[in-house]
Amino acid sequence: METSEEILEKCKNRKRNELERYYQTVLLTIGLKDFFGTTGTDFRFISAEPKIIISKSLSEVFPDAVFQYSDDNFGILCEIKTSMPYPDHFLLEEFRQLERYSEDVKGWDTPTKQVQNHDILLLCHIMDSDRVVNRISNWISKGEINFKKPFCISEWGVIESLKFGERDIILIRHRFGETGCVSLNRRLRENIKLDVDRLVAQYEKCRFTRKEPPLEYIMAQLWTCIFPALHEKTENFEVNINDLLKVAYEYYIPWSEIEGEYSQVRKKWIVKAMDNFCEIFLAEKIKEQPENYLIYYGKRIEKDVGEYFIEKTCRDEIERARKRGIKEALEEAQKRLTEFKQ
Amino acid sequence: MAHERLTTTLSLLINQYTDAFLKMSRGAIKVLSTFSETRFVDMVDRKLLELENIDADFRKVYEENGSILWNFSIERRIKRRKLEGSFLALQLGESIYLITGQPTEFLNDGLFYLAQKMYPELIMAYITSEEIYEVLGSFSKSVGVELFYTKFVAKKMFGKASTDISFATKREPKEYDPYTEAFREVRSRGLWIDAIRIFSKSAPIEFSISRSGVLKYYRGTFDTYYNFLLSEIWGFYAQRLKRFENRGRRDQPEKEPNPLLMEFDSNVFEDVAVRKQLIKIIGDYDFCSYSVIYGGNPHVYVSIVDRIDNSSFSLRTYGPNSIVIMPQVKSSKAALMRFSKHLLDNFREGTISDFNT
Question: Chain A within 8 Å of B281 (Cβ-Cβ)?
C-alpha cells in the first residue's frame, strides 16, 4: 500500500506533467500558426479559438486549430491532444466525439462562413501515438468508427535537437491516414519541424489554447503576471474579476480577428483559479460583492509559487478523496447494519 | 544622464574627509556608486520612518547647481551589536556616491544595507569584468601611469554548485605584472575578474575595483578617481540603465513584448544539468516569487516577480548559449538591474542586448 507521501508525490508529478504538456500545446499551436504563415504552404492558419457549428444540428464542435487552403474552398479541423485516455472505451469515446467533425460545419473565414469540403487532422502526443494508431486502425476496419471526411493522425513531441543545430524543435510526423491535400500530406510525411526558439516572443501574447489550462497553470499566470500588473506593492489588495479579465484580454490577444471568435482567456477559468486561491487561503471572497476578492498578496509563501500551488491543490484533492472514501465506507457500513437488523 | 563635473570646492571638502582616514594605518576609502532620480536625503528620511533599527544624523555640507554633499552619521542595531560610522553622500544629478573611510564591516552592514533598503528608488548598478578591463585601460591612459595588480578575485560559472575564488599574490615589487596579465590569465581559464587590486609604481595610486561597482582606494585623491575612473564606470551604468528603461509591456506601443537577450560565450545550455542549476539560481534570488512553467527539457521557462516593486518578467533559455528576459506588463529598470546582477554574480557573465523579435 502506498504511503500518503508517495501518493502526494505521484499527484505532484502528474500535475507538473500536465502543466508542461499544456505549455507544449500552446507552443505547438503558435508553431503551427508560424509554420503556415511563413513557410509558403498552400494553407493559412485561421484560428485557435474558432466558433465552429455543425450546419445541420447547429451544435458546436471544438477543434483546437483551424486551417484553410489558399483558395478558401477547403479547410482542416485540427484536434490537438496532449494525452489520450485509458482504457480503450474512453479512447473510443474520444474518437466518437471526433467523428462529429465529419459533419458539414460553419464558422470558416469566408464570406459565407462555409467551405466546400474539409478534413480532420488529429495531432496526438508522441507518447500516445503507437497505441492510438493501433486502436483506430482496428476500430475503422471493424466499422466501429466511421469518418466521412479524410482523416489523418500525426504525432508531435518536443525534442532536444542537437541534430537540428542546437535548437529546440517540435516535431510533427505522419502516422496514419491522409488529408485531402497532397502538399500537406507530403509535408507531414517529410516531418514538420517547428523551431521553438522562434516562438519565444509570441508565447508572451498567446499563453492559452482553447482547452482549459491546468488550474496551477492559470494560478501561476495570475500570481506572477496579472496580479503584479494591477498592484504596485506586495501587499494584500482587493480585485474584481473583471479587472483581472481586462488585463488578460489586453495582454493575451485573440488568436485571430474573426468575428465571433472566443477570447484567449475565459472568465470561468479565472473564477475557478480565484476560488482555488480561496481554498488555499491566498484569497477571500468579499461577501457583499460576489465578484470581488481580497488577495493575500503580502502573505509570505514559498518563493517557488508554482510548486506551492501544486502541493496545496494536491493535498486538497487527496483530503477530499479521503473524506469521500470515509463517507462511502460509512454509508456502506450503515447499509449493512440496516440489512443485518432486518 | 550626463556625468556631472566635480567643482574645486567639492573636491577639497571630500579630500578633507578622506585624508584623515587615509593617514590611518591600513586606511582605505570605499566608494559605493548608486543611481536615483530622487534626492538622497528624501529617501533616507522616508526609510528612517520605516526602519526601527537605524538612526541617522546628517547635515548638508555643500550645494551648488544640483551637486549636493551631505555628511551622515548612522547607527544600526544588529541584535546586541551596534554599528556606528560616518559617510559622505555626494549627489551629482542622478548619480549618488556613498563615500566612507570606515572599516569594510561598515560598508557591508551599514552602507550596503541602507542602499538595499532604498531599492527600487536607489539602484545599485554593476559592471562586467570586460568593462573593468576597459575602465582600467582608460584610467591608465588618462592619468598617464602604468598599472599593476597585486591580487584579484576571479569567478567562474557556479562550477557545479560552487563559486571558485582564486587569489594570486606576489611578494617582490618587481614581480608584479601589469593588470592586463591578470585579465589574460583569467580569460585563458574561462573565468572573470570579480575584483582586482591595482597600484602604480610611479604615482600615489592604489585601489581595488569590483564588478559590484565598489571602489576602494588606499592612496590618491577622490577627484583623481572621480574624474578618470568613476566617470568611466558611470558611462557603463548609464548605458545599462538606458537599456533597462521602459521595458514593461504597458510602456510599449501596441503593448508588444520588448525582450532582452543575455548571451554567454559558450554553449552552456547544452548540458541539462546547467539548465536545472539555472532554476536553482533563480530560487536563490532574494525577494522574489517564481513559477517554473517549463523545467529544462529542452529549455527552461520561468515566470518571476520582484516582490519589492512587483515588477515581473519571464526568463527563458534560448538556444545553447543565451537567455531571453521577457519583461511583463510592468517591469522597472531597477528590477531588471537587480535580476541581471544576480545572474552575473551567481550564474555567469554575459552581454545584454535588445532581443530582436
Answer: no
Last residue of a domain, one of A162, A189, A205: A205
Supply the range of the domain harboring residue A303.
212-342
Strand partners, A106: A53
Q: Do B291 and A220 count as a contact with CB atoms less than 8 A apart?
A: yes
ipTM rounded to 2 decimals: 0.89
Burial per residue of A265-286, b for 16 or more beta-carbon CB atoms within 10 angstroms, e otherwise: bbeebbeebbebbeebebbeee
- How far is the alpha carbon of A19 from chain B, nearest alpha carbon, in Å? 7
pLDDT tens-place string over residues B203-245: 999 999 999 989 999 999 999 999 999 999 999 999 999 999 9
> Is A196 within 8 Å of chain B by CB?
yes
pLDDT per position as a tens digit, A113-170: 899 999 999 999 999 999 999 999 999 999 898 888 999 999 999 887 655 555 688 9
Cβ-Cβ contacts under 8 Å, B259 against chain A: 200-201, 204
* B34 in Cβ contact with B124 (< 8 Å): yes
Looking at the complex, does the CB of residue A231 fall below 8 Å from at least one CB of chain B?
yes
Nearest alpha carbon to residue B102 among B80, B125, B86: B86
pLDDT of residue A160: 72
Question: What's A93's domain CATH number?
Answer: 3.40.1350
DSSP 8-state symbol, B6: P
pTM for this predicted structure: 0.90
Closest CA to A108 of A157, A143, A153, A73: A73
Entry field: residues in chain B: 357
Please report whether residue A67 resides in a domain.
yes
